Please model this.
Amino acid sequence: MSDREERGRLPPNQALAAEGRWPVVGERAPRGGDDRPWRVSVEGLVTAPRSWSLEELEELEQVERAVDIHCVTRWSKLGVHFGGVPLSALLGECRPLSEARFISFVARSGHDHSTSVPLADALALGTLVALRSEGRPLETIHGGPVRTVTPGRYFYKSLKWLERIELLAEDRLGYWEADMGYHNEADPWREQRYVAANVDRREARRLLESRDLAGRDLLSLEAGRRDLAGLDARRALLRNAWFQEAKLAGARFDGANLSNAHLEGAQLVGASFRDADLEGADFRGADLRGADFRGASLFGATFCPEPGDASGRPAALVDRTTRISRDQLDGLSEAQQEFLERRLAATPS
Ligand SMILES: Nc1nc2c(c(=O)[nH]1)N[C@H]1C(S)=C(S)[C@@H](COP(=O)(O)O)O[C@H]1N2
Ligand SMILES: [Mo]
Model:
């Protein structure tokens, strides 16, 4: 694939995961202590409910599809080959009733994971009940023995460890959509990542003035350009927060969830992000001298412009006093890894 072709296939504000890397997002294994043999059932508003063992799924006609994966935390992986059975083949045998408008995929999951898609979209997008990737059985960590893959939607619509397919008249929001504020439509080309904020502006302003957000759950908090030096946001849930150009020297974000947070141009000298979730966070132009990222998850985070980035945002100020460990660079795109390796080795002035 040429660079141009690749870029044309990247939705807005996504970057390619480093070559050969496939980040793991969310649960890492199905619910334990369950040794019933694996079956996938189709239930709900169908004429003929039924279920298949893995062997029976293998006996159906298999297809292979190249799918572009786009994670909501801003990494993409193009042309991953998934093999398995088209959802349409399973539904063809069960014959959905005309009232069936939505399809819910339910996982064997310790956290009751599920996700849903309008039935017409699931079919039009060519949803696959996948048993293999790149010709090999799916690894457990990526949803093996069987997961769904719904192309053209953020990857949280692709459920790992599929056990049940339910046809419904009304939508039933899944785990990420109901509990995490992820957008239910999830079209990466329209950047449908999150739904609106969950606190009103007055309440948000009051909390920011106190500079104490410890343990709070504040989706899409608006705090751009504010003076928040010394902020205590330990263990806070601040997904998709807007902190661009904010003064956050010495702020404590240890254990916080800042996935997809906007920290462009923020003053973060000496800030602490230990064990924080920083997946998809944007640090372009931020001052990160003396900041501590040890133990934080950095998949899809951005520290410098990606090739082709026309935003004019400069790279973050990172030097040897910034604490990021070698193994943390693994989840970043090639451009980000190269940038950080160079800066972390540079002598502070
Ligand atoms: N059962 C289950 N399915 C899941 C998740 C999960 O945590 N549990 N995470 C979702 C999210 S947010 C993403 S991006 C993809 C990640 O798949 P991967 O770990 O194979 O990359 O799975 C989706 N399906
Ligand atoms: Mo995701």
User: Anything to note?
Assistant: The first helix runs from residue 3 to 8. The radius of gyration is 21 Å.
